[in-house]
Amino acid sequence: MEILAYPFMQRALLAALLTGIIAPAIGIYIVQRRLSLLGDGLGHVAIAGVGLALMTGQAPIPWAVAVCVAGAVVVEILRQQGKATGDVGLAILFYGGLAAGVLMSGIAGQGAAALSQYLFGSLTTVTAADLAVIGVLAVLVLVPTLGLAPQLFAVSTDEEFARTQGLRVRLYNILIVVLAAVTVTLAMRTVGLLLVSALMVVPVAAAQNLVRGFYAALITAMVVGVSVTVGGAMGSFYLDTPPGALIVVLAIVVFVLSWPYSALISKRRRVAPVLPELVDDETLLPHVAVPEAHPHKHGPDCEHPAIRHGDHTDYVHEGHRHAQHGDHYDEH
Amino acid sequence: MPLSSPADSKSTGSGASADPVLRVEDLSVFLGGLPVLRGISMSVRAGEAVALLGGNGSGKSTLVRAALGLLPVERGSISLFGSPLGTFRRWSRIGYVPQRSTAPASGATVAEVVSSGRLALRKPFIPRSAKDKRAVHDALELVGMGGRAKSDVRELSGGQQQRVLIARALAGEPELLVLDEPTAGVDLEHQHVLADVISARVNAGLAVVVVLHEVGPLTPLIDRGVLLREGRVIAQGPLAELQHTTGQLLAHRRTGHEHVDPEPEGWLEGTVDH
């Protein structure tokens, strides 16, 4: 493994490994909350932080973290107050971040070229100091995402129920977006700000296809994340390609491969379709009993497909829907 | 069995048992600037099963959601187990079963969903104890879903999902069970299963508040009904009495016929206090 002989590659692989662990670990909560594109927006906001650092000649990661966390908190508070339900506010914040970043790096005289290593990742230029910051941030993200998993799971799947368990739902929600913001900035050297969201979402989607249950998906997503980031980093060394792009392509390949598997599984999960019952129309419908004698008794075990229809179950029988009514069946 | 002994924990709270488990006084709630509840007063005593009845938009779901602090209150007061809602902290005493439409849709197992019902008793960063695991197991057994702990909730039928949500609420060993339309969208067969599960809890001493569009199979276990219309309480009392006051056979649908009859226009005319 000549690749490990280069110190810059050692650092690159370590950074990739940490990103691969962290991004899906926080990503699973983002996916549960159906905010899959939040990471992308936060990536745009982080660009403003990078621009600010370039303009003032500071190290980019701390600035990107600060600006991105601030942006995430603003977005979440707006959402909690019901003011960001329309996407316009979010769009202004996100594109404002992007524009401000490009503007500030331009003022710094560095132009888009200086930004591009943050937009698309630049693994091989990770310094020892960068790696130390990434390591500390990774631990900061990993401890709550795993330690508070039961609480974060409850908050991100059923917010109201979580509140009736006495959980501080607002705080947990802010924690989720803050951790997402930290993850976005942490990943900007590996996959880049424009592609980081993919690493938070795609391994989770693949894991949900492959395994059953939240915790199994969490662990599987982290395994997928590490495989694609380390694999992508090594592959890009040999293929001489940008690592971020290869990492994301690999993740999508895993997702595509997981698809037929989940289709196979879900075939066995037969869930009856549901027909909503239009209560007001029901009185208009005549009561039609099945005309012929119907010796067969429909039930959960019979071969006729069951359909939930309002408050009862219909059984599809030779093109009709039969519903039990006292001692006979009605046509529904 | 720990789940069947809510009465024990009640007796440990000195004097608390004298307070109603839920008291709502002069409650008004506005949603989107419109009054949805207007001057509601009601209470639920320990061990009592109360049904909130009324048509769509009468405010029954809003009432339970406001009572649990899920909606902002415009006017009036709410107290749980003798404490004002704002200072109430012992959330494990309450088991909430929301409408099933809010059920977790993403990939989680039945046991994972039910485990959330122990969170009021758990501390952050502490892994769940053997007692937590046993309570989840017991709650699933109580609703007859013990064999499905590892199933994905999305694989279950509506009635089974409803039982999982009830198990989640029971896992914290509550003293007050609050159910929001547990029988909606559930076929009659499963409604009877749910009724049996809830009856067993009532017999074990739980107080129950249940929002119902129609009483149906739950009729025998309801001690008292509170009838709402347009955000006001228009009648309360035993179901038989309510039936009498409204001149409407609220419970007649519990046998035989599976169709939902809409309330005839003006079925409460003459009893509504305008």
UniProtKB/TrEMBL annotation, chain B:
Signal peptide: none
Recorded superkingdom: Bacteria
GO molecular function annotation: ATP binding; ATP hydrolysis activity
Domain ABC transporter: 22-255
Record PROSITE patterns: ABC_TRANSPORTER_1 (PS00211), ABC_TRANSPORTER_2 (PS50893)
Keywords: ATP-binding, Nucleotide-binding, Transport
Cell inner membrane is among the record's keywords: no
Pfam family, one: ABC_tran
Residue numbers spanned by region Disordered: 255-274
Name the record gives this protein: Putative metal ABC transporter ATP-binding protein
Organism the protein comes from: Microlunatus phosphovorus (strain ATCC 700054 / DSM 10555 / JCM 9379 / NBRC 101784 / NCIMB 13414 / VKM Ac-1990 / NM-1)
Organism taxonomic ancestry: Bacteria, Bacillati, Actinomycetota, Actinomycetes, Propionibacteriales
